């Protein structure tokens, strides 16, 4: 049986535990719930014994609070373990745990108001976490339904093709496990510069792109057992097409790939998954190649 890792919320509506347990129950996964505690104690207590006592009290209080939340939301028969860590850098802790255990996904409440350029925890986990990362929406659409996969069907890059397959495979399994329909969206973005210089006709460009994808869609349909009618190709910027389609269908989870750039290049260029997160009001499962 696989495992799922939930990062318990420290504040706010605390949606990670109930949503994570719901998904784990539907997919038949064991669950580890981790809670992070940290506070600088140097000025609070001068001696080590005093600091240790405060630290223990904070850890115990946090464990009791998270365990109470688990007890409230878990289903009968679910196997759930709560772990509390004294940790300043919780992203490093999560990455370490994922390196030790083969989690099928990590569940975390997203903070969409944070700027990814300022290296938020979401930003760091999208790039560094070795496991699939499910970022939950705090302000979610009501009455959500299908699972949606966002792919680049026009790519000729082998790494992106492999990522497409992984996204489709994971999304199909997730939809089946949760008893929901699967929707697949692909954006065709007309190059802005070519359009502005009248070097391409947008309508003809998109029409040709759709024709080029038709054979690939048919092949994927047969190979993965996904109906061709589940595939949808729309014109526009990737992040806006995905967000628009997800909103129209009230998708409960959007599954997509993320390239996981690092360093200055990542800060300047950003990432499609991050741009989508800024537009969506639903959960996003980000997968790496």
From TrEMBL:
UspA domain mapped to chain residues: 165-288
Function: Required for resistance to DNA-damaging agents.
UniProt-listed Pfam families: Usp (PF00582)
Matching SUPFAM superfamilies: Adenine nucleotide alpha hydrolases-like
Protein name per UniProt: Universal stress protein
Residues passing through the membrane, by range: none
GO cellular component: cytoplasm
Record keywords, A-Z: Cytoplasm
Protein's cellular compartments: Cytoplasm
Repeat listed as a keyword: no
Source organism of the structure: Pseudohalioglobus sediminis
Family: Belongs to the universal stress protein A family.
């Amino acid at each position: 049986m696989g495992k799922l890792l939930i990062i318990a919320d420290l504040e706010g509506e605390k949606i990670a535990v109930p949503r994570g347990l719901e998904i784990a129950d539907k997919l038949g996964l064991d669950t580890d719930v981790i809670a992070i505690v940290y506070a600088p104690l140097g000025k609070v207590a001068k001696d080590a014994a005093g600091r240790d006592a405060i630290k223990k009290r904070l850890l115990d209080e946090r464990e009791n609070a998270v365990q109470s939340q688990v007890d409230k939301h878990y289903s009968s028969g679910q196997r759930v373990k709560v772990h509390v860590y004294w940790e300043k850098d919780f992203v490093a802790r999560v990455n370490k745990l994922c390196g030790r255990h083969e989690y099928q996904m990590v569940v975390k409440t997203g903070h969409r108001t944070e700027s990814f350029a300022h290296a938020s925890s979401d930003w760091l986990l999208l790039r560094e976490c070795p496991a699939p990362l499910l970022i939950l929406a705090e302000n979610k659409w009501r009455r959500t339904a299908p699972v949606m996969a966002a792919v680049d069907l026009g790519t000729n890059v082998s790494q992106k093709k492999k990522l497409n397959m992984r996204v489709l495979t994971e999304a199909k399994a997730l939809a089946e496990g949760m008893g929901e329909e699967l929707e697949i969206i692909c954006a065709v973005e007309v190059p802005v510069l070519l359009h502005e210089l009248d070097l391409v006709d947008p309508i003809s460009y998109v029409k040709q792109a759709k024709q080029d994808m038709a054979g690939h869609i048919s092949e994927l349909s047969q190979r993965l057992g996904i109906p061709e009618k589940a595939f949808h190709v729309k014109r526009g910027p990737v992040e806006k097409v995905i967000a628009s389609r997800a909103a129209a269908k009230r998708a409960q989870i959007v599954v997509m790939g993320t390239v996981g750039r690092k360093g200055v290049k990542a800060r300047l260029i950003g990432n499609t998954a991050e741009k989508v997160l800024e537009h969506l009001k639903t959960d996003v499962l980000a997968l790496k190649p």
